[in-house]
Amino acid sequence: MISAWLSRRQARFARLPPLALISRFLERATFVGSDDPNDRVAEVAARAAISDARDKHERYIERLAVLTSIIGALAIAWRAISMGDLIGVPNLVITVAIGAYYGFSLLRPQTRSTRMKRWTRVTIEVSSATMVTVVNAMYSAEFGVTSSAHYTYFLAIAISSLRLDPLISLYAGALAITSHLTMYLYLRYGIGLPDTLPFHPALFSFRLSVMGLSALVGALLARTLREKTMKVATQTLEGERVRAAFGSYVDERVVQRVLSGSLSTGPERRSITVVFVDIRSFTSFSESRDPVEVFGSLHIALDAFSIEIQKQGGIVNKFLGDGLLALFGAPEPQADHQRRAVRAAIDIAAEAKRLSERGDFPGLNIGIGIHSGEAMVGNLGGARREYTAIGDVVNVASRVEAMNKELGTSILITKPVLDALGPDAEVRTFPSVTVRGRKEPLTLYELQRIPATREQPVPPEAPVGRIRVV
């Protein structure tokens, strides 16, 4: 209830025109890495990351407070024993009490760092320095002003920045200045101490100024840490979305280029090559085998095919049960996307033969259809977007792949693909055929061989994804 009241008061306070700029500095959340600044998913992810960071930092603060209390208690006890005075007893009690509070919190299961908890703890941390200073002043006014206890103020202000709330850092500084100034004014003018060096207003004003500057630096650091945390969270979310949009297999370098903005995800008209790969007689293969064995064989085959596609710079856009759809020339433009696609198809056919001979997928037989043309490529959907290609080139490639069954072939390509390959490609030409869903007949070519060229570098040790087996 108190926390809600403070939030309402803070909101009213921030609406005052002279304080609007300060309010934006203290509370404005900047989401970086999302295409849409109003993306609620990115906002939730960023705030969750801040909450997790605060919980982790609170653990760090607890450990630091316990360590500081132990060191302080030992120093106070050593001074009290060596000098034989009682001034250290109250300070020892205060130090032990603070250490016990944080130690007990450290031993308990980790809880969420609520706003009330953060404000309460920063009050305790600053007030502990005040209490020690007051105790010192009770025994000696000069010792109360000149003792090293006031350095604890700076530690408390520095620690406050770990809570990722600029307002808390400013509050810590204001509380430290107010407490220390009140004690000084009482000792200097209430008791009427002489204007000696330790009590000189200029010297004390400098100390208070440093406290204020420390609070400003702490607020700036808290704001920077908060925005960095939000940036990492939203960029991580965006990276996951990019990988989900492209499919399970995509070169990490492509993902990083998309995230950096140097590679567009459309929508745009692009000349691409589409490759459909299908496993033949998969139904009959599955009928006589255990589902676990079928799944394992399919996993091995699709994994191997996808790696060959990625080696040639393509992306696996979709897994289609017992097959897949791959794109070349998008999202990364490739002048030789037809040759890359054909080279990947040849390597897939060779890999299928190896898998069959090794017994990983007995009797594995595949059909591949390749077509090239213009399409619209880009992201479709909102938060669950998918990078895909839309156009006749996709439909034709699917129909071409299906023609392998009728023609008894493994790799079929169309004339646009053959024209891009040039005269060095070895093919077998079939009479023009009419495929389902298309009026104009197509001339199909069975690809038999294509010489390797130096113009087509293979990415060295490109990182690849894997199909997740559950």
Strand content: 5-15%
Write down the domain tally.
2
Oligomeric state: single chain
Rg over C-alpha atoms, rounded to the nearest angstrom: 35 Å
What is the end-to-end distance? Answer: 46 Å
Individual helix count = 15
The helical percent reads 55-70%
What is the number of beta strands?
8
Q: Structural class of the helices, strands and pairings?
A: alpha+beta
Shape: elongated
The major pleated sheet works out as:
8 strands, mixed
Protein architecture, described:
The chain is α+β, with helices and mostly antiparallel strands. It folds into two domains: 31-239, no CATH class; 256-449, Alpha-Beta Plaits (2-Layer Sandwich), CATH 3.30.70. The protein is built from 15 helices and eight strands. The protein has helices spanning 2-14, 20-27, 40-83, 88-107, 115-139, 141-146, 151-160, 166-190, 201-246, 252-260, 282-287, 291-311, 337-358, 392-407, 415-421; strands at 268-279, 315-319, 323-328, 366-380, 386-390, 411-414, 426-429, 444-449. Strands 1, 2, 3, 4, 5, 6, 7 and 8 form an eight-stranded mixed sheet that branches. Helix 5 (115-139) runs antiparallel to helix 7 (151-160), helix 7 runs antiparallel to helix 8 (166-190) and helix 9 packs across helix 10. The radius of gyration is 35 Å and the shape is elongated. The model is unreliable at 28-33 and 454-470 (pLDDT under 50).
